[in-house]
Amino acid sequence: MSEYTNCPDIAQWRDLLAGRMLTKTQQALEDHLGDCPRCIQVLEALAEGMDDPPLKLELLRSPPPPVEPELERVIQNVSQTR
Amino acid sequence: MTVRSRDDLTTHPSLLLRIRDPRDHDAWVRFVTLYAPLIFRFLRRHRIQEADAADLSQEVFSAVAMWIDRLRYDPQRGMFRSWLFAITRHKLLNHINREQIPDVGSGDTRIQRRLEAEPAREPPLPEDRVWDEEYEMCLLHWAAEKVQVDFHGRTWQAFWQTRVEGKQTEAVAEALGMTPGAVYIAKCRVLKKLREEVWIVEGIPR
What we know:
- The complex is a heterodimer.
- Chain A is an all-alpha fold.
- In chain A, 52% of the residues lie in helices and 0% in strands.
- Chain A has one domain (10-81).
- Chain B has helices at 15-18, 25-45, 50-67, 79-100, 109-117, 128-148, 153-164, 169-176, 180-202.
């Protein structure tokens, strides 16, 4: 059961995402998320971004193709131009 | 409820700003490592031979280095990718045009043979959509590789299995021995970091 009777302030969710939180407090927030769909939405909105187009994470399902030798040469050559 | 997402992003100079400084070698290497595969494979997909694709890719980067100062900064995502696409496509079309105009009276049978072998080849159709998708894929893989090292195995797996593979939170929590709340937190932390990396590349003025 969550120790929060009311939902945590949004600043706490921000701190949580930024890793600025004591373990005990984080545990309480973690428990709260198990009971509170509204706070799950808040947390996801903070992580996803409201103003930006969503990242197309499904594109990560395909592994990147291996780097061909000729491409490797391009990367090395161009990297050395500065 | 007001959630201002960009306020939550860390402040870093974007890669696109950093490469304007010719002394910032690290930024240039990151930039090249990120975009060379996109450019090279775009050219290869248009049946440009490997060696030519390599030369043309280098020409694209030379053009970027020359013109990046004049690229007006715009917070709208997508501007840089379109600009890079325009440069790459321009180099491609120039190359194709050069190859398709044989020297008059030169008797160069090598060129003639090549033209005969590929009579139907025409300048490629606009491929903005394909380019955009490959651009995003390059960017995401690059960002994911960087972000993954910052997270423990279970945290990364919680993100990967829920957001990339689309599994249910509860199922992932059970499989990883975590609470559902911990899975949400892990997923959101990784996602935020990933988004930050993407923004660092594409950049917004801050």
